[in-house]
Amino acid sequence: MRALPLTLLLASPLVHAGAHCDIALKAGDSMMYDQRSVGLDAACKVYTIHLTHTGTMSVGDMGHNVVIARTQDVSAIANDGMTATLADDFIKPGDARVIAHTKTIGGGEKADASFPADRLKPGDAYSFFCSVPGHAELMVGQIVVK
Ligand code: CO
């Protein structure tokens, strides 16, 4: 039996093994994430979004991002983002309703973003979505914190 690497044993001492502190999503050349729902552990201090664009289309043709917000704010953020630019990741500049978001990427690219776990309050409903104009209706899912 092989010993576990020490670094693995020391990682995140406050969070039990196997805690879900990451939101890992994939999207390709269609308006779809690979998941409709993601689970997060309430014991985490920081959550990290990992987006992988598995397609080949450019960011201008089929860009994707991941935005985290209260579920009740998703439509309004997406609508306001319609008039924002790619440089602003199709989010109205200074939109305080946005809890976190990745940059907008094209095929073959990856993007990460982290945010303090206490931004998600117990009892509120949260969602992830893509703010690229026209995508949010299909590219949306719920976040379940346990
Ligand atoms: Co998208």
Oligomeric state of the chains present here: single chain
How does the helix and strand content classify structurally? alpha/beta
Strand order of the largest sheet: 2-8-7-4-5
Strand content: 25-35%
Q: Main β-sheet: number of strands, strand sense, barrel status?
A: 5 strands, mixed
| CATH T-level topology | Immunoglobulin-like
Count of separate DSSP helical elements: 3
In the CATH scheme, the class would be Mainly Beta
Radius of gyration: 16 Å
Fraction in helix: 10-25%
The overall pLDDT average reads 91
Beta strand count: 8
Describe this structure in words.
This protein is α/β, with parallel strands linked by helices. The chain has one domain (19-145): Sandwich (Immunoglobulin-like), CATH 2.60.40. Helices cover 12% and strands 28% of the residues. The chain has three helices and eight strands, in the order H-E-E-E-H-E-H-E-E-E-E. The protein has helices at 6-10, 59-62, 74-81, and strands at 22-27, 37-40, 46-53, 67-70, 100-101, 110-116, 126-129, 140-145. A five-stranded mixed β-sheet has the order 2-8-7-4-5, with no helix packed on it. It is globular. The protein starts with 5 loop residues before the first helix and ends with a strand. The model has no long low-confidence stretch (mean pLDDT 91). The structure holds cobalt (II) ion.
